[in-house]
């Protein structure tokens, strides 16, 4: 039994609104969405941060990015032809990055103009 929230979602112990998955990656809607589309994409295996994952298993990180793009396609954020209307991928690391769950996740954000730079 783990106390990692996202590992518990992978194990089915906590419900998740799943929008996409593969054998190694899970994508589900954020409980507190910051945009019309706000999906979290995680490796099913526990890795704390993007840096930890790229060092441990860069192929799995590539699978996570591919799943994030598949979600963006599925949500209508990009077409097969191009990058319109577009979306943003975010991953936070540590307290200055704003990371609150220590299991790597990519935020897929879209459905409105997001602005830049972030606050
Ligand atoms: P972070 O701040 O670590 O980059 O992002 C963590 C994200 O997880 C936040 O956007 C937060 O809303 C989301 N979150 C926290 N608890 C839950 C939960 O129980 N279910 C879902 N679906 N999302 C969660
Ligand atoms: Zn975990």
Task: Offer a quick outline of the entry.
By secondary structure, the protein is an alpha+beta fold. Helix content is 29%, strand content 21%. It is globular, with a radius of gyration of 14 Å.
Main features:
single chain; alpha+beta; five-stranded antiparallel beta sheet; binds guanosine-5'-monophosphate; binds zinc ion
Poorly predicted runs are none
Structural class: alpha+beta
**Average pLDDT score:** 96
The geometry reads as globular
Question: Portion of residues in helices?
Answer: 25-40%
Structural commentary:
It is a single chain. The protein is α+β, with helices and mostly antiparallel strands and 119 residues long. It has helices at residues 5-10, 50-56, 58-74, 94-97; strands at 18-21, 25-29, 37-43, 87-90, 106-110. Helix 2 (50-56) crosses helix 3. The longest helix has 17 residues, at 58-74. The structure holds guanosine-5'-monophosphate and zinc ion.
